[in-house]
Amino acid sequence: MKIDLTETTASKINKALVEGRRAVGTPAIGMVLTLVIVTDEENAYDALRAANDASREHPSRTLVVIKRVSRSPRDRAKARLDAEVRVGTDAGTGETVVLRLYGEAIDHAQSVVLPLLLPDAPVVVWWAVNAPLDPANDPLGALAQRRVTDAYAAEQPVEELSGRAQTYTPGDTDLSWTRITPWRSMLAAALDQAPCTVTSAEVEGEEFNPSCELLAMWLAGRLNVPVTRKVSPGPGLTAVRMESSGGTIVLDRPDGSLATLSMRGQPDRAVALKRRETSELLAEELRRLDPDDIYAAALKYGVDRLADTDAQPAPQAPAAGEDAAAKPAAKKAPGKKAAAK
């Protein structure tokens, strides 16, 4: 069921939500959180579809904030709020409100969103595009316990990661980090199976891919070894090689779907390591609302490492994909001295 409201208010939107629930026969819905999506008109459909898919695991009230900038100076000065209320099958397993802000209302989006938040429920804000440099100090981000960005959507992903490190606040996270969760799990499991001392590592993937950068930072920080970045045609993150006292450990995924784990003294094993949809990434982030200390450590470790790239040409925007890649070829992460700092 959809209810369109023109030049409306938050009070009328709440009333429409109640009427919609009664009309579809669900006067009470067990929703676990409020998900605020900040996007533009062009990307709103994809973002909302991902949120609806994620709501099967996390029933939520989804508020989509779309800031519409008018070309006319006269219209830019006039505050206006249009809304589309969706309940029932049109809203996944929760409720959805699409908010279109015009004029002066754009600068006060938090005042529009605040009355629509579920009482006594956590708030998560996801910037599908155009994330602020400091999410925690953004007016909408200040309402949330968890703030989700995506460095891959930025024009310069490497610089975006550096900026995220400088402004990091507990509760911040990034979908570029979420994309490498299966890789981190598989590499950690491989080292558990064959206890050894890792001496160096190499991360291979597309150029200008923030997920590759974050994985390299994580390995360098956790293992305290030099990590080399190697550029490949992709798709996304393609391989990790670790030199150790027990031989070379290789996790290779050339096709973006099926990977091969190779270790000395053991047969090669095929492991499922497919590139995940945005809805799966979002669902993973909604499972935890506490600060991600491992992400924070990897992100902050990369500040000195990324500082070495200042002399490199500015990166261009990458093509669309999931595992994004963020660095010129064959740059070494700081070794033990940088980690000790």
UniProtKB/TrEMBL annotation:
<protein>
    <submittedName>
        <fullName>OpcA protein</fullName>
    </submittedName>
</protein>
<feature type="compositionally biased region" description="Basic residues">
    <location>
        <begin position="329"/>
        <end position="341"/>
    </location>
</feature>
<dbReference type="Pfam" id="PF20171">
    <property type="entry name" value="OpcA_G6PD_C"/>
</dbReference>
<dbReference type="InterPro" id="IPR004555">
    <property type="entry name" value="G6PDH_assembly_OpcA"/>
</dbReference>
<dbReference type="InterPro" id="IPR046801">
    <property type="entry name" value="OpcA_G6PD_N"/>
</dbReference>
<feature type="domain" description="Glucose-6-phosphate dehydrogenase assembly protein OpcA N-terminal">
    <location>
        <begin position="51"/>
        <end position="165"/>
    </location>
</feature>
<dbReference type="Pfam" id="PF10128">
    <property type="entry name" value="OpcA_G6PD_assem"/>
</dbReference>
<feature type="compositionally biased region" description="Low complexity">
    <location>
        <begin position="310"/>
        <end position="328"/>
    </location>
</feature>
<dbReference type="InterPro" id="IPR046802">
    <property type="entry name" value="OpcA_G6PD_C"/>
</dbReference>
<feature type="domain" description="Glucose-6-phosphate dehydrogenase assembly protein OpcA C-terminal">
    <location>
        <begin position="170"/>
        <end position="299"/>
    </location>
</feature>
<feature type="region of interest" description="Disordered">
    <location>
        <begin position="309"/>
        <end position="341"/>
    </location>
</feature>
